[in-house]
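1st attempt posting a full record on here, be nice pls
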Amino acid sequence: MQDLMTIKDASIWASKYIGKNVTPSNISYLIQYGRIHRKGDNGNTFVNRHDLEEYYNSHYETREDRWKKQLGNDLNWNLSFSEYKESETTKHVHRLHPYKGKFIPQLVEYFLDKHTDNFKDKSFFNAGDIILDPFCGCGTTLVQANELNLNSIGVDVSAFNAFISNVKVGKYDINDVRETADIITKKLKNFQKEKSNVKFENKLLGELKKFNSDFFPSPEYKYKVRQKEINEKLYGKEKSEEFLKIYYKLIDDYKILLKQEKDISFLDKWFLKVVRDEIDFVFEQIKSIKNQNTKKLLALILSRTIRSCRATTHVDLGTLKEPVTTTYYCKKHGKMCKPLFSILSWWQRYTQDTIKRVIQFNQLRTDTFQKCLVGDSRTINIVKELVEKYPQFGKLIKKNKIDGIFSSPPYVGLINYHEQHAYAYDLFGFERKDELEIGPLYNGQGLEARKSYIKGISDVLNNCKQFLKQDYDVFLVANDKYGLYPKIAELSNMKIVNEYKRPVLNRVEKDRSAYAEIIFHMKEM
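the predicted structure (as C-alpha cells):
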C-alpha cells in the first residue's frame, strides 16, 4: 500500500517530481482518460506512484530534450511559458471567443513590458507608447497593451475579427449586461415551453447515461482501450448502431425536426432545426437592445454559444467534416455522445463566464486607447481613419507616430480566417473579404502561394512604415518553415536584428508533434 496515493497526495508528489504545479484536477484527468489506472474500491480512489512515474517519464520530463532533438538546440524553452496554467494563458477577456491561430498573452507581455533577462537584454517600449498590430486577429496585442499602459491600434481585413477585438477592450455597464442577459434567458425559457426539444433532450440524456454506464464505464473502459484490451473502432461502431434504435424511437415520440428546410448558408447546414429556431429567437432579442455596448457584448456571447452548438462531433469541432444529426460514438470522451438540441445551457454558461472575465479585466485595465480598424493593412491610411473616427487619438498619432509593431501575420496556407467564423458572418451580416486574406488555406503552400505571401506581408510592412517613428521596433511571430522572412525583410527595407525561436506547447489542433515559431525582431535597414 505504500506506493498507493490519494489524488491530493499524488498531485503533491507529481509537482515535486516534474518541478511544475500539478493539481488534483490534473491527476483526476489522467485517471478519467485512462492515462493511469485507478486503484481502490468502496468509493476510495488511489493511484500507484510507479504508474505516475512511468507516465511523467514518457510524457513530460523529457519533453524539452525530445523537442530540441527535433527542432534544434537554439530552441528557447523559456519562451514556452510552460510554467503557466491554461487558466493563465487564457486569462480574463482573452477567452471571450474561440479563435484559431492566436498567440498567448504572456508572449506579448514578454516583448512589450519593461523587464530584461538573459535573452531580452533591453526593453523596447515605455508607458504611453503606441503599438500597432496590422494583423489584429482576436485582439491579444490590444488587450495586453492596455494592461501594460500602452496605446494600441489594430487593423484586420475581417470585420468579425475586428468585432471580437473591439468587444474585448470595450467598457461595459456590468449591471445592465447582467440584467439584459437575464431577461433574454427568461424569454428563451418561455420560448422553449412551446417546443418539445427540452423534454426530448432530457429523456435522451437519461437513456445515454444508462447506456454509457453499462457499456462504457469510466475510467475502466478508457484504460482497457489504451491497453488494447478493447478494439475501440469496432466496439464503438457496434454500440453506436445499437443505440440508434433507442434514439430514433425518441425522435418519433417527441416529433423532433432534425434538418432545416434549406441547406444554403452555414446556419442552414450546421445547426439542427430546433437549435436554429432558438438562435434566431435570441438574436431578435439582442437586436432590440438600446445600449450599444451591451448589445455588442451579448452578440459576442451568442456567437460563442452557437459555435459550441454546431451539429458536429466533439472531435471535429475545430475542423468540420459533415453535419451530425444522430447520437454517435465519441472517441474524445470514450462513450456515446449526441449533438445539441438547445442553446440554453451554453448561453447561460458563457454569459456568466463573460461577465466574470470582463470584471477581471476591468481591475487590470489602464486608461489608454485601443481600437481595431477594419481594413487592408497593405493600403489603409491609419492616421486618416483615426482622425475621422477617433479625432483625439488621431491627432496624437499624427503628432507622435507609432513606436512599433507586435503582430502574428497569417501563416502560408494554414487557415481561412473568414471561414472559421462563417456562422457569425451569416448571423450578423458582416461583409466577407476572403479575397483580401494573405496566405489563406485555399491558396495552398506551393511556390506561387509563397511568392504571393512574401509580397502581401512586405506590402503591409511598407504601408505601415510611413506611420512609424524612426528607430522603430517590429516584432513578427511566424512559423517560417519555408524561410520567407529574410526576403520579406529585404523587400520592406528592414533588417532582422534578432530571432527568438520558441516551442509552442498548447496548440488547439489535433497534431501534438514538436512545433516551433520564430519571433523576428526587425528594424529599419
